[in-house]
């Protein structure tokens, strides 16, 4: 299983570091949220959704845990 957050981030071609930079958080924080080891504060949930251009409800359950999906995705990192 993978979180919707990770699927959308990867589809947009963003690394955890790049997403973290956009919301002033570390890549480690993004990783912990994606793996479900950390429930982000409401402010961070909102920032993540805005940075990814989606509704907060698409990424997180009502209690703040990241939504998981069985959606398959294969991405090829783009060299920058």
Counting DSSP E segments of at least 2 residues, the number of strands comes to 2
- Stretches where pLDDT is under 50 for at least 5 consecutive residues are none
The biggest sheet, with number of strands, parallel, antiparallel or mixed sense and barrel status, is: 2 strands, antiparallel
Share in helix = 40-55%
The rounded distance between the terminal residues' Cα atoms is: 28 Å
Q: How many separate helices?
A: 5
Tell me the structural class: mainly alpha
> Beta-strand level of the residues, as a percent range?
5-15%
Given the C-alpha coordinates, what overall shape results?
globular
User: Secondary-structure element sequence?
Assistant: EHHHHHE
**Whole-number radius of gyration?**
12 Å
Instruction: Describe the strand arrangement of the main beta sheet, using strand numbers.
Output: 1-2
Mean pLDDT: 90
Give the key terms.
single chain, mainly alpha, two-stranded antiparallel ribbon, 5 helices, 48% helix
Question: What report would you give on this structure?
Answer:
With 80 residues, the protein is mainly alpha-helical. It has helices spanning 4-11, 16-22, 27-34, 42-52, 56-59, and strands at residues 2-3, 68-69. Strands 1-2 form a two-stranded antiparallel ribbon. Helix 2 crosses helix 3. The longest helix is centred in the middle third of the chain and has 11 residues, at 42-52. It is globular, with a radius of gyration of 12 Å. The N and C termini lie far apart (28 Å).
